[in-house]
Design brief:
The protein is mainly alpha-helical and 104 residues long. The protein has helices spanning 5-14, 22-31, 38-52, 61-66, 94-103, and strands at 76-78, 81-85, 91-92.
Length: 104
């Protein structure tokens, strides 16, 4: 699926945190081959940003795109219990998470 500049602009507008190297990020965005929408990509990036808690440890969007980091499985734990999140970053039950995983 060929990416468009319009999709990139939507992706970029939805990002939270540091927006650096926009030109390089656009080049990487236009090269990626995935069926994931621009909105979903931004949501996955923003989820990593929220989970990390310190923007120093979040890759720049250009590097995140180049390394296909949307495929990463991010694990969170609170008091030894795994936290499950939906695609928007909201905490959900393990059962709901498993249902969504099966549907994909």
């Amino acid at each position: 699926m060929a990416r468009t500049e319009k999709e990139f602009n939507l992706f970029w507008s939805l990002l939270i945190g540091r927006k650096v190297d926009k030109k390089k990020a656009k080049i990487e965005f236009l090269k990626i081959d995935t069926d994931i929408s621009a909105e979903e990509l931004a949501s996955k990036f923003n989820n990593l940003y929220k989970i990390t808690g310190n923007e120093r440890f979040v890759p720049h969007p250009q590097r995140w795109l180049r390394n296909e980091r949307w495929n990463d499985e991010i694990s969170e734990n609170i008091n030894g219990e795994k936290i499950y999140r939906d695609s928007d970053g909201f905490i959900i039950s393990k059962e709901e998470w498993n249902r969504k995983k099966i549907i994909k």
